[in-house]
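Regression test attached.
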Amino acid sequence: MPDVFRSRAFKSGLAYAGLFTVSAVILFAVVYWQTAGYMQNQLHGVIDHETQTLVGAYHEGGLAGLKKAIGDRLESGNNDNHYLLAVHDRRLAGDLPARAAVVGWSRAYRSVQPGDTMADRPDDGRIPLVLRGTTLPDGAVLVVARDAQQLAALRARLVDAVLWGLVVVLLLGAAGGALMGRAALRRVERINRVAGRIIDGDLSQRVPDSGRGDEFDHLARHLNRMLDQIERLMDSMRQVSSDIAHDLRTPLGRLRQGLDTAREQAQSPGDYRPAVDRAIAQTDQILETFSALLRIAQIESGSRRARFARVELSALVETLAETYAVVAEETAHVFSGDIQPGVAVRGDRELVTQALANLIENALTHTPPGTRIEMTLRTRDGAAVVSVADNGPGIPADARTKVTQRFYRLEASRTRPGNGLGLSMVAAVADLHEATLTLDDNAPGLIVSLRLPIVG
Amino acid sequence: MTSACKILLIEDDRETADYVAHGLRELGHTVDVAGDGAEGLFLATEESGYQLLIVDRMLPRLDGLAIVKTLRDTGLNTPVLFLTTLGGIDDRVEGLEAGGDDYLTKPFAFAELVARVQALARRPPLQSEATVLRVADLTMDLVKRRVWRADRAIDLQPREFRLLEYLMRHADEVVTRTMLLEQVWDFHFEPKTSVVETHISRLRTKIDRGFDTPLIHTVRGAGYSLYADA
């Protein structure tokens, strides 16, 4: 299995973890600023309120009154609030040193006192303070301060939480990415192993389908359909090669035998004549088979499509019907035509002619004298349908799909002339024209239809 | 009935070239052979007086199509018969588009070649078409689409009319089955049934029955010919 960490899925997992981390950081920052800001505002509010109360006491009772008020507050034992009343840097009252007499907001630290009872005892023994100094009308400075230990502790906890959170998110992201990568890789690997076995020659292998219906299953199904198609093509190619070998060996053998016999038995040059004539006829038949095979291959290559043009199908079918009516008279068949005029298709005139001629000739050569053969041209649902129907012996249902295969011949027709390529050629022409070729039971007999798309 | 022609054969396969040249010379034609495309083009342009070119499609140095295109571009109108390979279904159209006049698929019967050579070499020059064809006492009016033998009117089906027209245009020549399939039916394949034979037989019944001299003759191993026994 290739390196998980180089897999696409792992990289995506990691990228998602990174993105998630950034989002988490932003979220934490917002929470941090909101919470810490709220607590700080509250702290300031308390200090402001206390300052106003004390300034009120000053206005009522002067410095003495204020001094008394501070003293009362300190004695009440509220450890969170601290005070200073200083005049000219000299402390008149309070528990803060005189150097803390700074006007406005400021920060400072105090050391831990024995009486401090706080939940979050600072590690360094220093407690942060927030102070507000106010100048009184007679020049004295009043400072109200409050322990900010809770705010500091909250800040520290938030920062810790953010850091730990980040570590966890990153670890989960990486682990998740690795797991996803492994899962995806394992399935890709399964496809690769199958591909490897197919390359090694086992075309029956198929990509497993987990049945989950996900994108890998879709891929697997497509690959399997492709493999089915390839296998079918390979099979038909093997079949065709062996058919060619077999179908040409027989007439070649017969040809050789005929020549051999002529050489042994001919007494005079004149005796050779019939043997030579027979040999030429047999050679022609072999060449005809070759030619038909090449023609089918060329039609299947699709290069003829470049030469497609409008084909007046009605006129073409009319000509064929007229021509084969004469031939049918000779073979004692009852031939009739029923042709809708004015129908045109796009295609290769020469090939359509040959394909339709093949259908008629099949009916003429594979049915006994007296059989009715009807050729029709009709338009149906935007398609031109040319049919050749007969009331002859027909073709068994299971053989109808096989007759378009190269060299396939019904047992009954093996003794008749033909190379078993006629319907293969028709099928190839149909494919080239994106037409459908159907063989049906005409009850009794056979009806072969070629459905071509119409042009206006 | 054969008039001697001067023919240029451009064919790289020695065996085919010898077979064709020998056969045509036996019939009294003069045949020059070029073994490749470049030599063929050189002879066709430098040597004058050829009445027919027989050109193989696949040639070393310069292929048959290119030769004929070049010749047609220089204004040379000598009839061209292409020889094409087995099963090359695009060859005919391409050959005709390049300026060829006829084609023959290899391998071919010699009689087939001779008939084609005759037809091409004796092709009448382009001129105003005659509207009435006459062979002996047989008359065909191409405008009215009517046919008479002596003073008896003969009723023909469209296909029979075209068949007879072709035979009359090529009177005294041998026309092969394949030529008739191509020219009369536009069939460029070998039918499994006797399309030509049955039509000829019907035409014979209509043209020759009741007359002392038959006009339609079968030429053994080659095809048919329309002529009055003299």
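Expected vs. actual: identical. Residues 128 and 175 of chain B are 24 Å apart (CA to CA).
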